[in-house]
Amino acid sequence: MPELYLQRDQPPGVPPLSLTGERTLPDVPEENYWFRRHLAVYEWIAARAHGRRVVDLACGEGYGSAVLARTAASVVGVDANPEAFEHARLKYTGDRLRFERTMIELWTGDVDCVVLLQTIEHLQDPDAMLEHVRDLIGPRGVAYISTPNVLTLAPKGAQRSGNPWHVREYRADEYRALCERHFGSVDLLGLFHARKLRAHQWALEHAAWDAVHARLGITGWFYDRFTPAIGTRDFAFRRRRLDRALDFVAVLRP
């Protein structure tokens, strides 16, 4: 994706990041759907991370680490990208939150919870990464690892999405098998559209909405209002019909 969009209204002294497609960003209205889709998962994990010592690997812009720090005992956000690291360090501060710049495969620390969202599909050796995660959490820890569902991410009939940063994209059974090679307990959930996004999806699939808004000439007007209005409540978690999920969220224990 070309670097067409820049974060808006950043705090004084915080350099805005450009949207490249490698990671999602807050404060970019055109990116709001993807940002809220990611944020919904962070908020779901934060509700289950009370008192945990958390590392947020591949934390990117840092917004998710800040969400986790609302409930966790401590959070370390880790990212190798120098611009993302500097932005996160300056923008998100707090007694229970800090950021470190290093490769996620090399990070070590005293934690009992690992968060690794929308990253495993970027890695050349996902098995080695999962072994590292298992070592980090120890015998009583938990890991939350998400990845997109290739069946809903890729164009219909395509084998993969075409995202240049993705090495491997997964179906539910493939992702479960990957996780089960390294963890004794694997609980796999799917993230789905809810509320207005579910209604929008129904209109696309059953009411030819794409053709309707184009014919009426309201495409720009509609989506300029619809996209910024999307919130985290427009997503929901389920364990059924994972082939139709947007993303998979694996809850992993040794």
Describe what is shown at a glance.
By secondary structure, the protein is an alpha/beta fold.
Assign the CATH superfamily: Vaccinia Virus protein VP39
Rg (CA only): 18 Å
**Biggest sheet statistics:** 8 strands, mixed
* Topology, number of strands: 10
Share in β-strands: 15-25%
Tally of separate domains: 1
| Proportion of helical residues | 25-40%
CATH topology: Rossmann fold
What general form does the structure show? Answer: globular
Cα separation of the termini:
38 Å
CATH architecture: 3-Layer(aba) Sandwich
How would you portray this structure in words?
This protein is an alpha/beta fold. The protein has a single domain (5-192, 239-253), classed as Rossmann fold. It contains nine helices and ten strands.
Keywords:
254 residues; alpha/beta; Rossmann fold; 8-stranded mixed beta sheet; two-stranded antiparallel sheet; globular
Write the layout of secondary structure elements.
Blueprint (H helix, E strand, L loop, with lengths): L4 E2 L11 E2 L12 H15 L6 E5 L5 H6 L5 E5 L3 H10 L5 E4 L12 E4 L9 H12 L4 E7 L1 H4 L18 H9 L4 E9 L1 H12 L2 H8 L2 H8 L8 E4 L8 E7 L1
Parallel strand pairs: 3-4, 3-6, 4-5, 6-7
Antiparallel strand pairs: 1-2, 7-10, 8-9, 8-10
